[in-house]
Design brief:
This protein is an alpha/beta fold. The protein has a single domain, classed as Aldolase class I (TIM Barrel, Alpha-Beta Barrel). The chain has twelve helices and eight strands. Helix 6 links the parallel strand 4 (about 85-90) and strand 5 (about 120-125). The protein starts with a helix and ends with a helix. The model has no long low-confidence stretch (mean pLDDT about 95). The structure holds cytidine-5'-monophosphate. Cytidine-5'-monophosphate binds next to strand 8 and helix 11.
Length: about 240
Amino acid sequence: MISAAKKRLIFALDVDSFDEAQRWVKNLHAKVGLFKVGKQLFTRCGPEIVQMIRAEGGEVFLDLKYHDIPNTVAKAGVEACRLGVKMFNVHALGGLEMMQQTVTEVEEWCTANKVKRPIMLAVTILTSSTEKTLKGVGIDRPVVEMVPRLAALAKEAGFDGVVASPQEVALIRQVCGADFNIVTPGVRPAFASLDDQKRVTTPFEAISNGADYLVIGRPISAAADPAAAAALILKEIASALAAG
Ligand code: C5P
């Protein structure tokens, strides 16, 4: 059960140097399924960061949230495949055609190169956005309407899932069904501080509510013993999987 739990744990590699990232990967790769590389670390280190993680035996979630014209996003998606990432994401607000073209080109490239297609995720509405933020950019619909609408659009385009807040999981499941990956940040085990996260769920609750993958950063990185904290989280995920 622990190996099934490990696949679902994504560690947010929110650091700004190659060496620090490498220390985390060496310390945690036996405990976490994927390392999330975001805009800060990627902009600092470039593709070498992905190569290092893979060389250390880790898998990568490339969290660059592409949003551009269809051709540009599709080509960026192909480059993510060439780097060997296991998961990458785009903004669903880029639209159906952008996501469809990405699926098509990524699938063609993966078939031609005999590699497994990465898990393609869409971000619906960032959890930092409020109704006011949306109104400011001319979107008059409430967040609770936009999130399932964009999740359904991602599914229609052939995407594999979405990144969503734990509070949105049930709504997305209703619209997109069981066969759709939901990745949730904002997860806090009972032993950890809330940091700047406001609405949180525990790993047990998140998995029980239907999340497939959990993105967790500071509850592990700020712990006195990060590997032990990751091990506790794995236990909690495993018990939710066993209960489900
Ligand atoms: O340290 P913590 O567990 O809060 O890290 C969560 C990670 O998930 C960070 O990389 C953060 O940027 C990301 N994230 C988030 N909330 C979202 C989307 C992404 O916390 N809505």
